[in-house]
Automatic annotation (TrEMBL):
InterPro entries: TsoY-like
Transmembrane segments: 12-36, 58-83, 112-133, 139-158, 179-200, 206-230, 250-269, 281-303, 324-346, 358-379
UniProt-recorded name of the protein: Uncharacterized protein
Highest taxon, organism lineage: Bacteria
Species name: Marinomonas aquiplantarum
Keywords: Membrane, Transmembrane, Transmembrane helix
Length: 397
């Protein structure tokens, strides 16, 4: 049974636990996406993995491994989602105390997680509902509508925060010496990649045009906001040092870059199919390589900083407890997912390396190690922050 430390006030950052679990489920889907043949559909479906599974070879074993991972972490995502919804309702008054404060923006974790939920259920439907892809064109408008509702909620939350910052002069650099403001950028980038899914996979031109328009709008909005919060946050950190409790925010740029990269890949496919805009793996090699290497740089810098200030020692491996620590999970998930895109689009599809060659498997093993470290961290934080023991009262003598 999930139970947080009762001495720690409920905070929107607990939603990042559900977000991390959902992202981990998607990361297992990447094995099916890139290793399992699916010639008739843009993503693997029930028929594809079922065909592969009965072959009984190495890819069949990988398929089974991936399916188990998708199911386990999708279930964990739903469990944590339900728990957070219940906790949010129970602690509504506590959440309202964040309004008109710098911490109000952390409520963006809620629409961010809900957008991930749509992605998780889309994957589950494709994989475990036989024949679903035959009616998928009827589902794309529903997915666009779901993302539109979440986008409305996120936009309302963000504009409330920004209106207070602008009208009342709520920005003080000593209160923003971190990159937690990137949670809003993360949310809008997640919406951009969500809309881009329909743009990449639909065969209906109107659906592609609508999805592309929404995706582009949120992508450019995310980029502009990202520049704003990066400049302000880095400037404040240079003046006041990084706020220790918000240390995971220094890695938040990693999942944002992954989402923006996948958005561009998806939009490139949609524009190529319907608007005759040329797109091929070679054109994507440079942007994917630039973003992936930038992520490595951010990862190295963030790790060095958090080793120096002791965050990883005390909050991940030690006794200090903070729901903000769940912000450590998504960067690992995002680096793995981005690595799979970069490895397969930039190296395999361009013919630089042969799929299933020795060097190919070496790359997969390196990415697998990132995934394993991330999963172990998610399990550790879940046990530490959400499985607090229920202490029984001492018996009367």
């Amino acid at each position: 049974m999930l139970r947080k430390n009762p001495n720690i006030q409920y905070h929107p950052s607990y939603w990042l636990a559900a977000l991390g679990a959902g992202g981990t489920s998607v990361s297992f889907f990447m094995y099916l996406m890139w290793l399992i043949p699916h010639p008739a559909t843009p993503i693997p479906t029930y028929a594809d993995w079922h065909t592969q599974l009965i072959k009984g070879d190495l890819l069949a074993a990988i398929t089974l491994f991936a399916l188990i991972g998708v199911i386990i972490f999708a279930l964990l995502h739903v469990l944590l989602l339900i728990w957070n919804i219940a906790e949010s309702r129970q602690h509504k008054a506590a959440l309202q105390t964040l309004d008109n404060t710098p911490a109000e923006l952390q409520k963006m974790a809620i629409p961010l997680t809900l957008a991930m939920t749509v992605n998780v259920f889309f994957i589950l439907g494709a994989l475990f509902v036989p024949g679903l892809w035959s009616v998928v064109e009827y589902l794309f408008p529903g997915a666009i509508f779901a993302f539109a509702i979440i986008a409305y909620v996120a936009s309302q939350q963000f504009t409330r925060y920004m209106s207070h910052m602008i009208s009342d002069g709520g920005y003080r650099s000593q209160e923003h010496n971190h990159l937690s403001g990137l949670i809003s950028v993360f949310t809008f980038a997640m919406l951009a990649v969500g809309f881009a899914a329909a743009a990449a996979m639909s065969h209906v031109a109107a659906t592609v045009a609508i999805a592309t328009s929404f995706s582009l709008a949120f992508m450019i909005f995310a980029i502009l906001l990202g520049i704003l919060f990066l400049v302000k946050g880095i400037t404040a950190m240079m003046q006041h040092g990084l706020s220790e409790p918000a240390s995971p925010s220094i890695w938040m740029l990693i999942p944002i870059l992954t989402l923006l990269a996948i958005t561009w890949v998806r939009l490139s496919h949609g524009l190529s199919h319907h608007f005759k805009v040329e797109s091929h793996a070679g054109q994507l090699f440079v942007p994917l390589s630039l973003l992936f290497t930038l992520q490595i740089g951010v990862l190295a810098l963030g790790y060095k900083v958090m080793k120096k200030n002791g965050y990883l020692t005390y909050y991940l491996h030690g006794d200090k407890e903070s729901p903000v620590s769940f912000g450590l999970i998504c960067p690992g998930v995002a680096l793995f997912v981005m690595g799979m895109f970069w490895w397969h689009i930039g190296w395999v599809k361009t013919g630089i390396i042969d799929q299933f060659s020795a060097i190919y498997w070496l790359g997969i093993v390196v990415l697998l190690s990132v995934q394993i470290i991330t999963i172990l961290s998610l399990i550790k934080l879940t046990k530490k922050l959400l499985m607090h023991p229920l202490r029984q009262p001492l018996a009367q003598a």
